[in-house]
Inverse folding.
RNA sequence: CGGGGCGUAGCGCAGCUUGGUAGCGCACUUGCUUUGGGAGCAAGGGGUCGGGGGUUCGAAUCCCUCCGCCCCGACCA
């Protein structure tokens, strides 16, 4: 927290070029020094969030909310293309409904917030602020579904939910958070399983293609499964500090909720049958992942596809030249506006150097600098946030080159993240090997599927089973904990 | 809920040990000069020192008490 003050002092009498280093260090704690502090510094300095006056709550400021809106758009587009529709269900759930599915209640009981008063009256039945909506949606579905002709029901909702968490961190875990939750009902088990996996694929597309965050697809072990689910599928990503983050989940609920809520339909054969349900969710945590995967010591690096501003133009000019430069830059902005989300920073109160650092901190993917020298040569300077490269480009080619560069930045961020992930993924034969990597990163190893081994591992090392990857095969070297024959290949890691 | 840290201007902090007119840097306002990697000078505005109680002639400072925030753990998206 304070080491950089002393670091800064060392440079007090140093050449001028060190001054900016000192100033930068004062604003953002280096990632390598304290990842948690770095994270908090970045989100605050980049104007993404502010802390609310209640513990565990945050304000998503426009800069982060815009990213959320891009994520929503990317999700909706895919949900709609696969036949889903959005709807909205109530925030509050009567206690009796929440209690209907035994495992489900048990799983959430410790973190439900309750409404007990309406105005000055004590309520006859207390109301839960939804921690998730399976129960109230199940209740509604039971009334909507009579016949196999009513199936499938494919509904998604964008909503806020609340879970009374013990410790919270912006985006990663807050008491209230935004998400989407899909809830579907199907005629057959197979159809529901297909739906569950299809939605996992949708998440993968959005998270990898839009957020440029590489993920591993897998199924959760019994101990990590969603309360009330038969099977939970998950996407796991590796953060910049070597910790794992569950980034989206898709649940096959079997007939557990259908039975609890009497979701039944009369089939073609005249028999009354229970439906098969699924639910799947992804949250604003995705923004946290984006920050932790791509960010660096200068601040955010936002993938172009979800960047609120993709290109920023910084005009450089003094005195009489200034008006001409601004006019030129304005024309440039208007020219590029059809190609990308471009912003002209014509603030007069800041120097170009300040603006460079400012926009880099905010993670804008591409910067265009235009000054008198450039105008004279009919070119501009471009600077990429992903690589830091700075180069001149002929002005007349910008309309073509800018979209290409943005696409390249998107791809580069993804491949950088994937390289990092791969470099920090280790195949192991026994769990002691994790120590040489300080228990950071992903570990792939065989597991006997006995929960006692998982518990022992967690006790000793804080490492947990993140998932059983869908595309991994047993190595045959035996359970990494007990050495007995492996049953499943597992992905291990310390989790957020 | 355990361990640690911290509450003084919008932000970051000093002052507290040893009580005596509330300060510094950044930010903000105005003016002039500046502008190719965090500009300079000058003049300004801004505070119930987290809340309550106590000790005292006098409390940011000492005592009691409550509250809040951050980090790390256990629990969870």
């Amino acid at each position: 927290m304070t080491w950089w003050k002393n670091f800064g002092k060392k440079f007090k009498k140093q050449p001028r070029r060190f001054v900016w280093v000192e100033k930068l260090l004062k604003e953002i704690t280096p990632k390598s020094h304290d990842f948690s502090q770095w994270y908090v510094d970045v989100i605050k300095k980049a104007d993404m969030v502010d802390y609310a006056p209640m513990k565990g709550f945050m304000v998503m400021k426009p800069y982060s909310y815009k990213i959320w809106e891009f994520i929503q758009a990317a999700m909706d587009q895919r949900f709609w293309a696969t036949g889903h529709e959005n709807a909205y269900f109530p925030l509050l759930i009567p206690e009796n409904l929440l209690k209907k599915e035994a495992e489900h209640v048990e799983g959430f009981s410790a973190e439900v917030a309750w409404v007990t008063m309406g105005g000055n009256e004590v309520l006859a039945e207390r109301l839960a602020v939804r921690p998730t909506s399976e129960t109230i949606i199940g209740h509604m579905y039971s009334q909507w579904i009579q016949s196999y002709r009513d199936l499938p029901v494919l509904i998604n909702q964008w909503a806020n939910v609340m879970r009374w968490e013990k410790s919270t961190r912006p985006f990663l875990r807050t008491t209230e958070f935004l998400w989407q939750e899909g809830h579907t009902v199907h005629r057959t088990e197979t159809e529901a399983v297909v739906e569950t996996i299809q939605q996992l694929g949708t998440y993968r597309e959005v998270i990898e293609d839009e957020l440029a965050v590489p993920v591993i697809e897998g199924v959760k072990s019994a101990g990590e499964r969603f309360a009330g689910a038969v099977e939970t599928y998950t996407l796991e990503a590796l953060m910049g500090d070597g910790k794992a983050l569950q980034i989206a989940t898709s649940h096959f609920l079997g007939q557990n909720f259908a039975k609890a809520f009497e979701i039944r339909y009369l089939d073609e054969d005249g028999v009354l049958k229970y439906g098969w349900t699924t639910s799947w969710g992804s949250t604003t945590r995705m923004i946290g992942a984006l920050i932790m995967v791509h960010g660096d010591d200068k601040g955010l690096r936002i993938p172009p596809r979800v960047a609120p501003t993709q290109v920023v133009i910084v005009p450089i000019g003094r005195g009489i030249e200034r008006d001409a430069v601004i006019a030129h830059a304005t024309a440039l902005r208007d020219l590029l506006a059809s190609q990308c989300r471009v912003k002209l920073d014509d603030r007069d109160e800041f120097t170009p150097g300040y603006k460079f650092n400012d926009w880099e901190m905010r993670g804008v993917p591409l910067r265009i600098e235009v000054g008198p020298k450039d105008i004279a040569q009919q070119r501009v300077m471009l600077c990429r946030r992903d690589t830091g490269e700075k180069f001149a480009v002929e002005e007349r080619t910008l309309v073509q080159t800018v979209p290409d560069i943005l696409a390249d930045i998107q791809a580069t961020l993804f491949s950088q993240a994937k390289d990092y992930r791969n470099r920090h993924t280790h195949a192991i034969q026994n769990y002691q090997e994790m120590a040489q990597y300080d228990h950071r990163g992903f570990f792939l190893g065989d597991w006997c599927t006995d929960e006692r081994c998982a518990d022992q591992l967690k006790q000793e090392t804080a490492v947990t089973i993140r998932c059983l990857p869908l595309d991994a095969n047993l190595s045959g070297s035996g359970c990494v904990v007990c050495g007995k024959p492996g049953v499943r290949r597992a992905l291990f890691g310390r989790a957020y």
User: Anything to note?
Assistant: The radius of gyration of chain A is 26 Å. Residues 3-52 of chain A form one domain.
